[in-house]
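Objective 1b: paired records.
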Amino acid sequence: MKVDKVLDAKGLACPMPIVKTKQAMNELESGQVLEIHATDKGAKNDLTAWAKSGGHELLEYMEDGDVLKFQIKKG
């Protein structure tokens, strides 16, 4: 999967990963993919719900040690 932008939200606590994700998404065109790296365990539920409510598609979620990685396709 081609990633158009990577957002480093490691070390940020809720709600900052969502705030930063929203800002980064605003810079992308529809169909582009944003990859988010976060360490806040709450980000899994938050970003999944945020993507769905915003009309975006969560393409992939994985854990790499302490880092949660998400790929969200802009709707």
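Objective 1b, second protein:
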Amino acid sequence: MTPAALVPGPQGASILWPWLLAGVVVLTLGAGATAWWLARRRRARAEASQDADGVTWVANSSYLAQVPAFAAWVRRYRTLQVVGLVGLLVALVGVGAVAARPVETDVVVDRLGTRDIVLCLDVSGSMTAYDGEILKVYSELVDNFEGERIALSIFNSTSRTVFPLTDDYTLVKEQLAAGVAAFDKDPSTLDFTREGDEKDILEYLTYTAGTLANESAASLIGDGLANCALQFDEEATERSRSIILATDNYVAGEPIYTLEQAAALVASRDITLHGIYGGSDLYAGTPEEVEYRDVVEAGGGLYFLAGDPQAVEGMVEDVVAQQAVELDASPEVIVTDLPTLWFLVGTAGAALLLVVAWRLRE
């Protein structure tokens, strides 16, 4: 079967080397037949020798076959012989089956590996009260993904890549959790002169380091979005690409890119832009919020308020619905050895044989 003909999914249990099991069975049957033939021949020779030499018959001994104790002993002896033979056969079959490698085969194709998602988060002062909750939304999104590559970029006046595109979900969840902890308290409420706030201050400053390199401006939304658009690699490959931007769209300074220009850059790179409005619901309908909504929806993306319970479900459905492209990847065949059952069979047969041998010695 060629790799192209493999159907993804479990292929069932099988024997990897069936010829070895067949060989053990044939050798066992051959050895049994040979032993039977030799025993029969030996018995025939003994009888012939006794006839030639003469047999000494003991008078009045025929009654022994009718003695109940003797007859029971003979039956028990023959039963033990049969049981011992069965134990030997079971042990040999179990050992042969283990040697033949019983396995379970599974064919895995990473169909979701061609979807790339960049989480793009505004960490400016007007957003810090909402960033912790938005990072929790991001974490819920990740919990619903399987195989997608995820990146996180945060920005204020400048941008920092928290982690590049990766399918290491352990790393992703650790960094998102660190972000939730960093924004657990609103930085505007922290007292930088009080020792009790040192831990929270250090977490916040560590997580947002590198986002205020341009001290003359803040909350440059367009520049932050443009940087997120540049996170995608493998430009020559047909892949599904999405950005999930969270901001309140309040700009303080002169950006290189306006929000519209950055959205145009996103569209030119065949990236779908989804938006989460990170400000208070009270600001819904303001010019900044309306502009943000219009830009996202004009590009065909989904737009939600941060507290909208449909945000996670809607974006997950949209990302999963996008076409995943196979990247010349052959199906991966995973073979798992399953010797346990046959090992137990062989062990049980050997144990039975030992018990019978002990009983026969008695």
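The chain has two domains: 3-48+68-107+334-361, 115-321. The chain is about 50% helix and 15% strand.
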